[in-house]
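Summary of Year 1 activities. Much of the first year was spent building the evaluation harness for sequence design. The harness presents a backbone, in tokenized form, and records the residue chosen at every position. We chose the following record to illustrate the format because it has been used consistently in internal testing since the harness was completed.
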């Protein structure tokens, strides 16, 4: 949606879950020498201030990254994730939060490639400026990431990760996610796909995990983190999920190991819980 700005939500509990998983996935995928191709369909601005602007209005990061910032007991891969955030806050004060593109770039190697799509003109311009000196390692495209997938898959290396993370402010986003996933898997069946989804009291949101499972085939992992009870009034994000197709070896075990800890730390009330379901070949 052209009015959506991720800065309002930067560093919140949903970002924490998504970016812990992103770091863990990329660490596993980059263990082999062969290049990895990463696509981010809804890349945003790349980096967000937590001291001014959008993030301060809602302050969602205070119930997200801020709860992990000063801890010295973080298990892996949570410690690795916080290290990526610290890389853009070298003075030790939590001033900025990196979006998925910056986090991915911090983990990827010189031989890997990062392809970023962003439809919002202002966000896209900021994103382009973020990676102006990255050369061939990063390509930023101003446009619809759902449509862009068709042009970039399959990658030449045949090894890659596709992150699909729309705003879900439009009902059509839910349908577009499933369609993009089906099409992407036809073009690049062996790729790893990570779909973030919101937990809302909304029909499309409630139905999406089952629709993703039907589209996924035989090898998937579905992780959901509930940080609080759903609002009796209906609206409001009470958690989020990640649906991973073709998760690399050991990733599921890593997430099983940290989800109880993460749920405890990010809990906003006694209803906090997590779910981890898998179908593995």
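For this record, the design step produced the sequence shown next.
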């Amino acid at each position: 949606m052209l009015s959506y700005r991720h800065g309002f939500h930067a560093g919140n509990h949903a970002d924490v879950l998504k970016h812990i998983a992103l770091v863990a996935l990329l660490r596993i995928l980059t263990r082999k020498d062969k290049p990895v191709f990463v696509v981010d369909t809804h890349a945003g601005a790349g980096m967000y201030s937590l001291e001014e602007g959008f993030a301060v209005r809602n302050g969602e990061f205070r119930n997200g990254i801020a709860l992990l910032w000063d801890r010295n007991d973080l298990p892996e891969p949570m410690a690795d994730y916080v290290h990526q955030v610290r890389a853009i806050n070298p003075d030790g004060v939590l001033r900025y939060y990196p979006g998925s593109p910056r986090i991915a770039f911090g983990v990827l190697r010189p031989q890997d490639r990062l392809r970023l799509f962003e439809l919002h003109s202002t966000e896209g311009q900021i994103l382009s400026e973020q990676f102006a000196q990255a050369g061939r390692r990063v390509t930023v495209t101003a446009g619809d990431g759902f449509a862009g997938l068709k042009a970039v898959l399959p990658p030449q290396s045949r090894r890659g990760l596709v992150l699909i993370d729309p705003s879900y402010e439009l009902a059509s986003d839910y349908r577009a996610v499933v369609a993009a996933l089906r099409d992407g898997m036809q073009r690049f069946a062996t790729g790893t796909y990570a779909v973030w989804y919101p937990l809302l009291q909304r029909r499309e949101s409630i139905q999406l995990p089952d629709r993703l499972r039907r589209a996924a085939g035989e090898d998937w992992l579905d992780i959901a983190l509930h940080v609080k009870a759903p609002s009796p009034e209906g609206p409001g994000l009470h958690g989020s999920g990640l649906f991973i197709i073709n998760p690399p070896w050991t990733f599921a075990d890593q997430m099983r190991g940290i989800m109880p800890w993460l749920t405890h730390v990010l809990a906003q009330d006694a209803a906090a819980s997590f779910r981890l379901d898998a179908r593995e070949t």
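The longest strand covers residues 192-199. Quantitative recovery figures across the full test set are reported in Table 2.
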